[in-house]
Specification:
- The structure is a single chain.
- The protein is an alpha/beta fold.
- The protein is 12% helix and 21% strand.
- It is built from 5 helices and 13 strands.
- The strands form 3 sheets. A 5-stranded parallel beta sheet has the order 4-3-5-6-7, with no helix packed on it. Strands 10-9-11-12-13 form a 5-stranded parallel beta sheet.
- Keywords: Glycoprotein, Glycosyltransferase, Golgi apparatus, Membrane, Signal-anchor, Transferase, Transmembrane, Transmembrane helix.
- Belongs to the glycosyltransferase 10 family.
- This is Fucosyltransferase.
Length: 280
């Protein structure tokens, strides 16, 4: 069985399987962070974990849980978490996994963007924590939930009041999905303005909330194109723009109807080519 928890201040959901070993009868379940999250040991962003039991009361967790990075406690902890991006070939591993422990490989990037020493870690982990829905611990980049505020009503000509068609904000210009080539073809049939490292448009201050708000207030459609075409892979590119009055256009390997309501997005995969998408 599992419990689902929403991350504070983020449109994210984590589905957590419950530990079933003998530690359940103990006073505390302890999670050990073997790697940092990029350059930070404890963070409430993506990794979710702050030291001690600071993380868990805000999720109304029914168990007494604690997080540590104290290696003297390694042999007694219930779970050991390894962040994929920090898992380099020269990372020193614990001597062995205790029979009662869950060793968790955690990462939410697409596999093509991850290089791991697979031979070194084969058979090492008994849980995974990724965006895949078949992970032991699925971690979505976002989720749709019932709101508490009234929905703002629009006139039927709401989009017609905007004077620009399509916008794309992007920093990775060469990707496994080849989205850049799709956009190049799309531009032959509809106006597409590109902001960021891969385009000629600039919005200042870069990556600020105001910058995004100003851009998305002007355009009708936003290209939420993923860098990889992978099962279940839907990132913040899609979820973030749902907060604005703009229609996201997706390109990815996910069944988007599992992530958002019908009519809240346009899926480029539903059209045979960029021209048909532009016409729609």
């Amino acid at each position: 069985s599992a419990v689902s928890v929403a991350a504070p201040r983020q449109p994210r959901l984590v589905n957590i399987p419950l530990l079933t070993n003998s530690s359940r009868s103990q006073n505390t379940i302890t999670i050990f962070l073997w790697t940092e999250y990029f350059s930070t040991q404890f963070t409430d962003d993506y990794y979710f974990f702050l030291p001690g039991n600071k993380t868990f009361p805000r999720y109304n967790c029914q168990y007494q849980c604690s997080v540590t990075a104290d290696r003297k406690l390694l042999t007694s902890v219930d779970a050991v978490l390894f962040h994929i991006t920090n898992f380099k070939s020269n990372v020193k591993l614990p001597n062995k996994r205790r029979l009662h422990q869950r060793w968790i490989l955690y990462g939410i990037e697409a596999p093509r963007l991850i290089k791991l020493p697979w031979q070194k870690i084969d058979g090492l982990f008994n849980w995974t924590m990724t965006y895949r829905e078949d992970s032991d611990i699925p971690v979505r980049y976002g989720h749709i939930c019932e709101g508490t505020l009234p929905v703002k009503a629009h006139d039927n000509d709401f989009l017609e009041k905007k004077d620009k068609d399509v916008v794309w904000i992007v920093s990775k210009c060469h990707t496994p999905s080849n989205r850049e080539e799709y956009v190049r073809k799309l531009k032959a049939f509809i106006s597409v303005d590109i902001y960021g490292k891969c385009g000629d448009k600039v919005c200042l201050p870069t990556q600020s909330a105001k910058c995004y708000e100003d851009i998305l207030r002007t355009y009708k459609f936003y290209l939420a194109f993923e860098n990889s075409i992978c099962k279940n892979y839907v990132t913040e590119k899609f979820f973030n723009v749902l907060n604005f009055d703009i229609v996201p256009v997706t390109l990815g390997g996910a069944n988007y109807s599992r992530f958002a309501p019908p009519g809240s997005f346009i899926n480029a995969m539903d059209y045979p080519d960029p021209r048909k998408l532009a016409e729609y």
